[in-house]
Amino acid sequence: MENNNIFSYIDYLAFIRKMLDMNARTYGYKAKLAAAAGCQRSFLSQVLSGSTHLTVEHAEGLGNFWQLRKIEKEYFLNLVLLARAGSKSLKEFLRQKINDMRRDQENLAKRITEKTILPDENAAIFYSNWQYLAVVILLTIPEFRTVESIARRLNLKNDIIKKTLQDLEALGLAVRSDDIWLATSTTIHVPRDSKFNSLNHTHWRNQAVQNSFLGDEESVHYTSVCSLSRADAEKMKQLMFQLIDESRKLVAPSKEEELFCLTCDWFKV
């Protein structure tokens, strides 16, 4: 996975060079960048050599050419402003602003725009057991919308699933029509600062550990303990965020056929 996530860069020149590298096979790409920026190709070459800097007008043109999102373009413009800043106080102000923008992008609650966040009294029930979330997602699959079919799929007793569905109905997350159950919300997010965040992660990592003993060929379990530079550790973290973003783009339009779980772990030991 090539890293073209603008928020993983603190030097705008490094981002431009990366875009040039990723489009090395595109004929005349450097000339296209110069045209988009509204400058001569020779001037862009001087910028890339470090002898001068883009203006914010140049940067805005490049942001449009790359079709950056509004927040991404703002970040790129701030990187250019930081490189051009002449005073220590202005540089510090821009560095703080850039760091704040990076932290915001690392907050998954802000990256996931379409979501349901449960109030604490409901979350206390929903995150008390892994099966609540599992059942909600299973209800998106047509063949798993009865007590019996869900119980067979999760290898749980009918009474447990019946109680789970009744609880979900009381929470407003499921509705029943005769013997058929449907989910009313499927993108349920627990914020980073929620008291239930660690509990939710624990449930699903326990499920991952149990699954690792089954030898299931469809499963992938990977653990790597490594040493690396702080700069590369930051790149690894950004790759994780990129994976999350790309996975959501893939999952959203995908036909509901089976239940899977993705867990991402990257942390300093």
Walk me through what this model shows.
The model has no long low-confidence stretch (mean pLDDT 88). It is elongated, with a radius of gyration of 24 Å. It folds into 3 domains: 6-105, no CATH class; 120-183, Orthogonal Bundle (Arc Repressor Mutant, subunit A), CATH 1.10.10; 197-251, no CATH class. Helix 4 (56-65) packs antiparallel against helix 5, helix 5 (70-84) packs antiparallel against helix 6 and helix 10 packs across helix 11 (158-170). It has helices at 12-22, 29-37, 41-49, 56-65, 70-84, 88-105, 108-111, 120-126, 130-138, 147-154, 158-170, 197-212, 230-251; strands at 174-177, 180-183. It has a two-stranded antiparallel sheet with strand order 1-2. The longest helix has 22 residues, at 230-251. With 269 residues, the chain is mainly alpha-helical. It has 13 helices and 2 strands; from the N terminus they run αααααααααααββαα. It starts with 11 loop residues before the first helix and ends in an 18-residue tail after the last helix. The protein is 56% helix and 3% strand.
